[in-house]
Each structure stands twice: as structure tokens, then as C-alpha cells.
Design goal:
496 residues, Antimicrobial Protein, Tachycitin, Chain A, TIM Barrel, 4-stranded mixed sheet, globular, binds 2-acetamido-2-deoxy-beta-D-glucopyranose, chitin binding, Chitin-bd_dom, Chitin-bd_dom_sf, CLUMA_CG017789, isoform A
Length: 496
């Protein structure tokens, strides 16, 4: 069988082949029999035999891994999660048709044309803005948290962000939340926003396959989520600057058109494969300076739109694998000190080279495993002692990039100074409303609980009805741009 045949047969036959072998071999041998799909690149793949195990493919070699006890591998989200929430694999993936031309619609970076603050690019994406020397600039660390915020994770997030760790200017460290709607607690989100954390959007529904959907769907998901945050967490539209596509599957040109049309400043959905030197954020004025593994990156230029890419995490031995989200690397069999060492090695690739922002992207499940959470605290404690390390929000990182400052100028850098008002979000109420709301999905009606400092809506807010009015399809978002400064009240929504 030649390589091509093996590849095309993979989806249909490999499950049966591996299943048959497992009965006659030990698991150590079956590991060698699992073949990493050649067309899918590095990543985690379901073990066809059991939902408790999965393979991590690194440069074509499969590493067998086990989920922590009680957790199962979810083949859609590609990490271990609670047994009753996990979707066991292998789940056949349909390769999306190439509906748009590949990345050659955009031109190569032209340094003579591309100037800060509006444009930033470099030959291979790894250069420091304004040609500053690495020893003169800060090492930024971006903590990002994806998905719903609620009682399961809020206290864990607060333990990182409650002020116990500070930046060199004495301000508490801050993070960025890419919020999805279902199960979110809007009083808690309001508190995070009021404290100076950045609120950005993922989507309302976290639907699968959004990368292949059209403009209307992306508008409904992204702008609807931004509206929900405005109604129920008092976060004004002008403070929601960023978005992240579910499952890091960007929506080709369609998603970026929405980013552009509705005044977002950046997207953070594109993964950089395991580069030896990490890539800095760039604007989409030119071709993306690295391989696009998801296959759904934008193919044309979007001048002035920033991409804050996710450089993959890994250590030299590839122990734990290669992952854009830290919880997708397999570190749960490590103790807290080993997690610390792993993070330190990964971080040193940035700190000792070009000091590209070190993005630590998490889902809630990192915080469900004590060793991982403790390892993270040890890492933050260690890193926050370094004189040139700053934990900033994604927008604060871009504020630095558009106006790069040397270390000695940072004490007076307003964008990072918490003594300046950093948000319009009001202080949240002490006791929120706990709303029990009916929620209709298809022909099933369910109840969802939602906490907010606002009055309870009639229905659970959802696509097309972000206010929860109970009138389906009520929202009608119209084109808007964020420059010049928007008029909050009239900017984004009219009722039909
Ligand atoms: C908001 O955060 C502060 C500390 O930052 C805490 O004291 C307060 O209880 C929080 N309020 C809510 C509603 O979570
Ligand atoms: C936030 O709350 C204040 C006080 O209730 C209100 O005046 C303001 O319009 C609200 N902002 C948003 C974006 O809803
Ligand atoms: C609800 O929808 C499912 C699938 O769409 C269908 O099989 C079922 O019969 C429907 N139930 C009712 C009561 O309509």
C-alpha cells in the first residue's frame, strides 16, 4: 500500500485495524500501530479502542496518553473532560471544501509600506517592533480564559487575578476572557470587567462547523455575544475589542469581514505551529507569516486588523506534546513542580529569544486538576519576580506594540497603569438576580439559570434574541465601524 492509499483509507479503516490488533498485543505495541493522520498535522487524536486514552501526534509519531481518572477524551474539543460531557471518538471529520483561494491573495510583508501604529509585519513574523533589542523590552505574558465563567471556575480564576500577584508597577496582574454564553454568570463577568480584566467574545452557542458558515451566522454569534455582555454585564461595546473562534477554527475571510465591519480590533484564533522562535502579533495587511494548520485562515488582506496568534507550547523533549491551549498538553500526570519546570522551559523560548508575548491560553479544565493549578501559581509567582515580566491583557499588549516602550519607560506607561480608570463597567451589585429562564433549542424546552445585576429577561438570551425578549429573530445588526468613537446607545442594534 503506498502512502497516498494509506492516507485516503485512514478515516475508514484504521479504526478496525487498530481494534483488531489490540486484542493480540500489549498497549505498548499498539501505540506503534497507531498511525498519525498525515493530513491533520500535530495534535490529539482519539484512541479508537477506548475513550479513556488518546494519542498525541508530534511530527508523525504517536504518543499514547491516558485521561486522568474519571475524565474521558472529547474528540471534538480534543481534551479530557468530564465523563458525561465527553464526545467519544473517533469522530469523522469532513474536510471542508476549499471554497476560497489559498493565501496568495495577500501580498508578502512590505516593510517600506507597513508602519506602526496602523500596520505591523516582519519577514518571518518573529521580529521585535521598531527593531528594539530584546534586553530593552518587557516580556509580556497574556493569560487568556475561554468559555463560560460561572461558579465552577470563578473562584479559581479570582485566585490568579485577585491582586496577590503584581506587575513591576505595583498593579495587579490581569487577563483576557473570551466569553461564550451558555452557563455564563453575568454578575461574575461584570466583576471581572470592573476589576480591569479584558472581556472579549467567543460565541453565543460554541457551535461546531462555524468556520464554514456565512456572514449572518458569524454576525449573530459574535455581535449577539457582545450585546449580551452589554445588557447583562454592563460591558460597553467599545471595550469589547477582541474575538476568538470556537475550537480555534477561524472562519476564513467571512469572520474577518465581521471583525472589520463591526469594529473589533483583533482576532486571536490562529495557531502558529511549533516554531523554534515564537511569532509576534501582526496586522492582516499582508500574508500570514507562518503555516496555517487549521486550513481556514483568511486568504485576503484586512488592513489594520490585528491577529494575536497562539504560538504552540512545547518543550524540547516533546514530553506532554504540542498545544495551543495549555490544557491540551498532557501534564496531569506531573506534580506541581514538574508543571512549573515544563512552563519555565516553554517560556524560556520567548524570554531568551525575541520576547514575543507569551500567551497562556486556558479552558476551565486546567483549573480542575490540582497539580496543574498549583503549577500555574508557582509559575506566576516565579515569573512575576522577574523585573521585566508584565502580565497584561491582550489589548494592553497591542497598546504596547502600537507604541513600543523600553523597560525604563514603563513605569510611566499609561496603558498599563491601573491608577488610570481602565473601564466604564460599573461596580457589580452585591446580590444579583438568579433568573430561571426557559430555553428552547429545537423542539426541546429546558431551563437555564443566569445571574445578572440587571432585571431578569423573559427568555434565555440566544442567537437572534440577545436581550432575551422572547421574540425570536428580533435582533438585526447593522454594519458599523468603530472609528470614530461609537455612540453607545444607537450603534449596533435596531429592532425590526
Ligand atoms: C467582586 O470582586 C471582589 C474582589 O475583587 C469581591 O470582594 C466581591 O465579592 C466580588 N463580587 C461578586 C459579586 O462576585
Ligand atoms: C452601565 O450602567 C450604567 C448605570 O446603570 C448605565 O448608565 C450605563 O449606560 C451602562 N452601560 C452599558 C454599556 O450598559
Ligand atoms: C423532536 O425532534 C427530534 C429530532 O429532531 C425528533 O426525532 C422528535 O420526534 C421530535 N419530537 C417531537 C415531540 O416533535
Amino acid at each position: 500500500m503506498n502512502k497516498f492509499q494509506r492516507k485516503t483509507l485512514f478515516d475508514h479503516r484504521i479504526a478496525i485495524v487498530v481494534l483488531a490488533l489490540v486484542f493480540t498485543t500489549t498497549s505498548a505495541q499498539s501505540k506503534e500501530d497507531f498511525e498519525c493522520p498525515t493530513d491533520a498535522g500535530n495534535g490529539n487524536f482519539a484512541d479508537p479502542v477506548t475513550c479513556r486514552r488518546f494519542y498525541q501526534c508530534v511530527d508523525g509519531y504517536p504518543y499514547l496518553n491516558r485521561c486522568p481518572s474519571g475524565l474521558y477524551f472529547d474528540d471534538i474539543q480534543k481534551f479530557c473532560t468530564f465523563k458525561d460531557e465527553a464526545r467519544c471518538g473517533p469522530i469523522a471529520t469532513t474536510v471542508s471544501p476549499a471554497t476560497e483561494a489559498p493565501l496568495d491573495l495577500a501580498l508578502k510583508c512590505d516593510l517600506s509600506e507597513c508602519e506602526l501604529p496602523y500596520c505591523y509585519c516582519s519577514k518571518d513574523g518573529t521580529f521585535i517592533p521598531k527593531d528594539l533589542a530584546a534586553e530593552d523590552i518587557p516580556q509580556m505574558i497574556l493569560l487568556t480564559f475561554d468559555g463560560a465563567v460561572n461558579h465552577n471556575n470563578y473562584d479559581h480564576y479570582m485566585r490568579v487575578l485577585d491582586g496577590r500577584y503584581a506587575n513591576p508597577n505595583g498593579c495587579p496582574i490581569r487577563g483576557t476572557f473570551f466569553i461564550s454564553h451558555e452557563y455564563s454568570n453575568y454578575q461574575q463577568i461584570q466583576n471581572l470587567s470592573h476589576a480591569g480584566n479584558e472581556i472579549a467574545v467567543e460565541t453565543i452557542s460554541l457551535q461546531q462547523g462555524l468556520q464554514d458558515k456565512g456572514y449572518e451566522e458569524w454576525v449573530g454569534e459574535m455581535i449577539g455575544m457582545r450585546e449580551i455582555l452589554r445588557y447583562f454585564s454592563n460591558v460597553s461595546n467599545s471595550e469589547v475589542n477582541g474575538m476568538r473562534a470556537p475550537f480555534l477554527k477561524p472562519g476564513r475571510n467571512t469572520q474577518y469581514k465581521v471583525v472589520e465591519d463591526f469594529g473589533f480590533i483583533y482576532d486571536s484564533s490562529i495557531v502558529v505551529p511549533s516554531n523554534k522562535i515564537p511569532v509576534w502579533p501582526y496586522t492582516l495587511d499582508y500574508k500570514i507569516p507562518h503555516e496555517c494548520k487549521s486550513g481556514t485562515c483568511p486568504s485576503r488582506q484586512f488592513p489594520g486588523v490585528w491577529e494575536v496568534p497562539l504560538n504552540t507550547h512545547y518543550v524540547e523533549s516533546f514530553e506532554g506534546g504540542v498545544c495551543p491551549y495549555l490544557d491540551q498538553c498532557v501534564l496531569h500526570n506531573h506534580d506541581a513542580d514538574e508543571v512549573l519546570e515544563w512552563l519555565q522551559e516553554d517560556f524560556s523560548r520567548y524570554y531568551e529569544q525575541n520576547k514575543a508575548p507569551y500567551m497562556m491560553a486556558f479552558h476551565t479544565n486546567w483549573f480542575q486538576i490540582k497539580e496543574l493549578e498549583q503549577g500555574l501559581h508557582k509559575f506566576i509567582e516565579w515569573a512575576s519576580q522577574l523585573p521585566d515580566v508584565w502580565f497584561v491583557t491582550t489589548t494592553q499588549a497591542l497598546q504596547w506594540m502600537t507604541d513600543p516602550k523600553r523597560n525604563k519607560e514603563l513605569a510611566a506607561f499609561e496603558a498599563w497603569d491601573c491608577r488610570k480608570p481602565q473601564t466604564n463597567t460599573q461596580r457589580p451589585c452585591n446580590l444579583g438576580n438568579k433568573c430561571a429562564l426557559s430555553f428552547k433549542l429545537g423542539n426541546i424546552t429546558d431551563t437555564r439559570y443566569m445571574e445578572t445585576c440587571q432585571d431578569c429577561p423573559n427568555k434565555y438570551p440566544w442567537l437572534g434574541d440577545s436581550e432575551g425578549s422572547g421574540i425570536p429573530g428580533r435582533d438585526n445588526y447593522i454594519y458599523q465601524s468603530k472609528e470614530p468613537a461609537p455612540n453607545e446607545e444607537s450603534e449596533s442594534e435596531t429592532t425590526k
